[in-house]
Amino acid sequence: MQHPDSRRQEPAASQVIAQLREKVKTLRRQVVELNQALAAAQAPLFGGTSTAFVEANGALVLSALHAAAIAESGSLVWSLGLVPK
Question: What does pLDDT average to in each consecutive run of 10 residues of the chain (85 residues)?
Answer without folding.
Answer: 60 86 88 85 70 80 84 71 61
